[in-house]
Design a protein that fits this description.
The chain is 42% helix and 15% strand. It is α/β, with parallel strands linked by helices and 265 residues long. It folds into 2 domains: 132 residues, no CATH class; 106 residues, no CATH class. Strands 2-5-4-3 form a 4-stranded mixed beta sheet. Strands 1-7-6 form a 3-stranded mixed beta sheet. The protein is elongated. The relative contact order is 0.21.
């Protein structure tokens, strides 16, 4: 008897049922069938974990990095050295406190403004990120009519040098959520893209239990915010169902072709 467990609130019953049906017909051992399909699940789970949307590739990485850039430009205004110095007097005190910010089209946007040093940028960014999506709330800056109080944004003025540095550091975090599957991938023999592997295996676990007549694989993605990511459980359920459907098709193929061995090696 084989069983499979994923430490998110997903239904593994279809996967487990298909696994046992497939194992009963396969020429491989029950343990081999379990490990092969656990590997298939992990590959699919990574491909569906943001910023991936079906494939874990360079396009997905770029999508994540572009999202980082868009978010940071929403909350930071990079200033060149002369602009930065123009806000301060000789003693380093603020002499001008801006209350409006012009967007690219020249429209003004009411904002709460902060002058931030490099070591203050991360906390400012984290405070404005959504716990559900990890993204910064975007305001329609061209719509100045009927603006609500809740639409007032917060702007951090920073130097261009500090902005470039912080953007580089933040883009390095792309792939962190998917890295919660790295421990399982490594154990099961799947090699994720380098931008996911770089985050290591410390954010997830995999446990393989072997008994006399029972094998079990338990996989956990332990990234600290994994339970807050909107839609992730649905995506992991999809990964499980896809892998189950793959086994169901092979079982159906076996019976349709009267037990022919094709596909069961």
């Amino acid at each position: 008897m084989n069983s499979f467990d994923v430490k998110l609130q997903v239904d593994t019953s279809r996967f487990t049922r298909a696994l046992n049906q497939f194992a009963a017909l396969s020429k491989k051992s029950g343990l081999e069938v379990l490990l092969d399909n656990a590997k298939g699940f992990v590959r699919r789970a990574i491909a569906l974990t943001p910023p991936n949307h079906g494939k874990a590739n360079s396009a997905a990485r770029k999508l994540g990095e572009d999202s980082v850039h868009d978010d940071l430009r929403q909350i930071f205004d990079p200033l060149d050295p002369a602009e930065w110095r123009g806000f301060f007097d000789q003693e380093g005190g603020l002499k001008i406190v801006p209350t409006h910010r012009a967007n690219r089209r020249g429209a003004e946007v009411t904002a709460l403004t902060f002058f931030l040093k490099r070591n203050e940028m991360e906390a400012f960014h984290e405070r404005l990120r959504s716990k559900a999506t990890g993204r910064v709330r975007h305001v329609n800056r061209d719509n100045l009519i009927g603006r609500k109080k809740s639409d007032i944004s917060e702007i951090g003025f920073v130097t261009k040098q500090d902005f470039a540095w912080f953007e580089r550091q933040t883009k390095k975090k792309v792939g962190k959520l998917a890295s919660g599957w790295n421990a399982a991938a490594q154990k099961l023999g799947y090699n994720p893209p380098a931008w996911i592997r770089r985050h290591g295996t410390s954010r997830g676990t995999v446990q393989i239990t072997i008994g006399n007549d029972r094998f079990q694989v338990s996989i956990a993605n332990s990234v600290k915010f994994v339970g807050q990511v909107r839609g992730l459980e649905r995506q992991i359920q999809t990964a499980l169902n896809w892998q189950a459907r793959s086994m169901e098709r092979r079982v159906a193929f076996y019976f349709e072709h009267n037990g022919r061995a094709a596909g069961f090696k």
